[in-house]
Amino acid sequence: MESRVTYFEKAGIQNTDSTLRAARQKAEELGIRTIVVASSTGGTAVKACEVFKGFKVVVISHVTGFRGVNTQEFTDANRKMVESAGGTVVTMTHAFGGVSKAMKYKFDMIDIGDIIANSLYIFGQGLKVCCEIVLMAADAGAIKSGEDVISIGGTGKSGGADTAAVITAVNSQFFFDMNFKELICKPLNYAV
Fold first, then answer.
1. Which of 111, 177, 184, 191 is in Cβ range 3.0-4.6 Å of 164 for a Cys bridge?
2. What average pLDDT does the segment 151-177 reach?
3. Domain segments of the chain as ranges
4. What dotted CATH number matches 15-63+72-187?
């Protein structure tokens, strides 16, 4: 079996349109109808809803407080556009973070979520995001465990999407049963 993988020279927002097109092509090729996409402010989510019109689009946003106390980055305007296009926005604690981050900040400890996240960073930050958002979507009940989905993530604070993969969803407590089936695209260098 052969499959095409797209590699971008650099990570970042400039790859968003190409990432979404490659993900759409793979979804059609495999008959996958569920798309999970990370979006901080909602800009990528709005684009994903346009590209994946007719698909089930689940958007995972940062938890409120991620960038500052009581701060929600996902704009109300973008949330309305996503929802009016039929998409679902899930805002919840990061699967690899949460309460364990409090231990890190208070006691300067390394937690298991950091170990997992940093291990996945070896393959690129966007790939870590792709894995984490699938766990979050399954935990929220927005997708089904055992379902193949296209997962789309990005790198750093640059915004946009630059990584996509085919993943079989599981709930976070079954993380090690996740099946990372196929890489669609990623940056060669994920430093922004």
1. 184
2. 93
3. 15-63+72-187
4. 3.40.1380.20
